[in-house]
Structures are given as C-alpha cells and as structure tokens.
Amino acid sequence: MAAGFKGELNRFQPGVSMEISRLDAWYSDCHGSVESTAAYIIRGLCRRCCLPETILRSMQASISLSEAGDSLDRCDKLIELVASSDSGMMHLFSQQQLQEFLIFERECFICKMELEEEQRPADG
Predict the structure, then answer these.
(1) Is residue 62 within 8 Å of 76, Cβ to Cβ?
(2) CA atoms of 54 and 45, how far apart (whole Å)
C-alpha cells in the first residue's frame, strides 16, 4: 500500500497521481462487524510514507546549506540514523528512495572532501 502512495508500483504511469482525502482503518470481528478503529495501520502507513521523504528532503536541504558554508553535521546525523540497525529506518525506504538517499550521501561526502581541501594550507 505504501508503494502505491509513493507512486512506486511496478506498472505506475508517470504523471498519474493519487490524491487521498480520507483514510480509515477498522478492526472487525469474525462475523465482519466493525468493532473499532485500527489507528496503528494509519500510523504505520504514514511512517512508511512520510519519514523517508522527510529525511530525503532534510538531506537535500543540508547539502544546499553546506554549499553556502553551513556545517554538514546534520547530514552525518541523518546518515547515522538511517544506517543504524537500532532505528529500523532503512526498511521504511523504498528501493527508489534508498537510491536517492545514496546519491545525497555521496554529495555530502564530496562536499566534505571539498571543504577539507579548501581548509588545507597551500603548499608553497
């Protein structure tokens, strides 16, 4: 379901989007009668859709800020968060989102190397 919301289904057509105006989940008993809401399903779906996208946009913003002279500490923290098995964040990312994350990680390291190169004293 999350792949559908992210627009990453196998036969997804570019330019086609899904607009969600309401999303409900309910528990039902063995007879099919609705008992109560299943908010955990909605929370899980939002977690799978929103957290990876928020992290990707934060990485993108951090890299842009670093090009303007800001520290790359935020990028490092986001990389550690996603890479950590304790956080369990990596499994929330789709294949496409992981590829985008790796591109941003690469850009982050390139910016770091450029900063280190600029800070080295010039040899004679």
Answers:
(1) no
(2) 14
